[in-house]
Write a structure and sequence with these properties.
The protein is of the alpha/beta class and 355 residues long. It has helices at 42-46, 53-74, 94-111, 120-126, 170-180, 188-197, 219-234, 241-266, 282-295, 304-307, 311-322, 340-343; strands spanning 11-16, 21-28, 32-40, 84-90, 115-119, 138-143, 148-155, 158-164, 271-275, 299-300. The radius of gyration is 21 Å and the shape is globular. The termini are far apart.
Length: 355
Amino acid sequence: MNAQLNREEELILAIETSCDETSAAVIRGGREILSNIVSSQIETHRQFGGVVPEVASRKHVEVITLIIEQAISEAGIEAKDLSAIAVTQGPGLVGALLVGIVSGMSLAMALDVPLIGTHHIAGHIYANALVHEIQYPCLALVVSGGHTELVMLEEEGVFRIVGRTRDDAVGEAYDKVARALKFPYPGGPHIDRQAAAAEHAAELPRSWLEPGSYDFSFSGLKSAVLAAINQSRMKGLELDVPALARGFQESVIEVLTVKAIRAAKQFGARQLLLCGGVAANRGLRSRLEELCAAERLPLLIPPQSLCTDNAAMIGAAAHLKWTRSQFTGFDLKADPGLSLEEWSVREARPAIPAE
């Protein structure tokens, strides 16, 4: 792709290495994707049944330079045209984050351009801005391998967490249940397919927590699935895998969607944004579409290529900081526990406590 450069709009090279995808992208004006290169490590980690942090870090080191060069080349620009370098600062695996940070920092120093440390979850949320016009206030439902959160955005770039998981994130719960059902890694798509093919759903519990709470808990549901598997084995009965997969997925989806719609109504959200890797789940997308249509609440979902970890979303989030000249010093450190609220373009109000 040949880019016709507009000097009034910045060109950000974004780098994402928070887990097991090595990605680099060039984003113009915070909205236009000139390139978005992703190198996945799924095949490497599949033999281990999950991501091995040390292996992930080594794989990032092996390909990061090539991925950056490819992103710049595909964007049809030269490195000297770049306005800034954005890197994922956190959350994520510390070793993996460091690979991207060191690479981005070195390039920013060499080109004498600003460095922008970027929040991974802000990236997932603002992936929507690459394909939709976001209206504020809005509510984001973040569902990924390591995160399940309801995030209120009363204005651009200001995040307030109103609900979060107290134990397993949705993606973690899916992977653990899939492992118990002997599905290969990553297990989420396998559960989604089995659930869609099932004639009926196994009865499994819903965890609503305290009245009025927007927090989530999936550990009890995971335990219920494991108990059903063990009981079937002890009784010598054939396990109805599709029914169990459907029961698990329906429980997850009901709690996620009911709380998201209730929060959107309570806080006056003009839109609901679905974000994160689990946003690719067909059952979740379909149910949210139904509920949002009934409530006449616009639902924004990025295409599948922007749901999983990628650098384009990091570039979109970094644009928030660029427009306000909120750059990062070259003493930037990887921060696996980086707070989304503190990363806001200005200080956000405290999170809403559970009632």
